[in-house]
Specification:
The protein is an alpha/beta fold and about 475 residues long. The protein contains 12 helices and 20 strands.
Length: about 475
Amino acid sequence: MKKLLLSPVLTALALTLATGSVGAAQPVAAQPVAAQHLSAADRAYRDLMDHGPGAKVMTVAHRAQWREAPENSLPAITAAFDHGAEVVEIDLQLTKDGHPVLMHDDTVDRTTSGSGRVADLTLAQIKELRLKKGLGGAQAPLTDERVPTLAEAMPLIKNRGLANLDKGWNIREELYQVLTETRTVRNGLFKSSAPVEEVQAFRAKHPDALYMHVVSDDNIDHLDGFKDDQPVAYEVIFDSDEDAIVRKPVLDRMRSTGRVWINSMWFGLADHYTDERSLIDPARGWGALIDTFGASMLQTDNVETLESWLRTGRAEKLPADSVRVQGEDFRQGGEGVAYHDLDAQNRGGNVARLNEGVDVCDQDGAVDVCWIRGGEWITYDVDIRESGYYEVSARVSSPYRPAGTYRLAFDGGSPSDGVAVQNTTSHSAFFLQPSGIKQYFKAGRHHMTFTLDSEAYQNFNLDYFQLDKVKNPS
């Protein structure tokens, strides 16, 4: 009888069918004195190469720090490093005349003042365009920033950290040339899910190039293909924690030779373990990705909060004298008493308050009031612990401008002036926006009514209200 030989991956899978804990990453042990004189980029490179049991978890900024500057812009790169990221993820496209530029989409439409395919535009034409705020979009405000070239970005990155060269595999030779010219080969991390033979041909030609392979259940056999010449890291994609790629023996195998990179930006990249769930409770997102799935590199849209949690064990904490009211925690009583919604159905799906008319959605882990329309209103209980003046803000998201206008009234009083919701460039991009409302409360329970102007265009999501005590009210 012919003996059946199992690949190492299938052999590992046969050992166990249950995903188990692989242990949280621990702080890196104290380094020699000489290490104190390393640049930030040197330390990031050292950390990337460290995949031992004490390896620190590395923070990767998705499209750089787009919350403060346009995605893939030079200021966004600077801000990402300033906020603690060791790696910035940047996206690359090639212009008509052969220049790699930082651009996520095939076209410039979403993120700039122009239109058309990057491949059909010269660098000079692209340099005439202005970048849009944040994640861009049809109605996002324009900024004065311009589309950078890779040749402009790499000197900025050279001493600050590493760059993940996303969407650049098909132009890898052009990217490598820029890295060589800017003396930043060690700063650039190539990636793909290409056939192993294709990858190994590139690595053989450029042995100094850093490379990470993207794996999922669709190409799990690639782990065998690299044999003894494993990539420096694997980017693991899974839409269910039952996927074969995240079984413990498979993850352990990847961790034994390199880093495990997992993305937490939205549903489907790492099942439901997202940034937004991490902001509610890090154990529900980032903590699980580290402890259960062995992540040693986390790509995030919330660099500061992730870094704070990794360094101090504290994530986004509510100030002691502040009050937060979740959008979905409206009062009991039903239609016409606790709220008025224009249709009786909860259009948000099977998320929360299923038998109520207020629409409640799950936006990549953020449970929010959605499908907001003019003429609707919702009432809330607000429990104030300490008497005083409070400033009110709302955490909202919207790709529209105008996004909407709301008013707040307290304890049956007159509604406030209208508060305009600002464009955040995406329904998934939540920001805490001040309302300009300052209200005095005595300690105890109060009622707040949130009203949507019927004559205004309304299309935004509400995550929560936050009331911050004013120390020195004027």
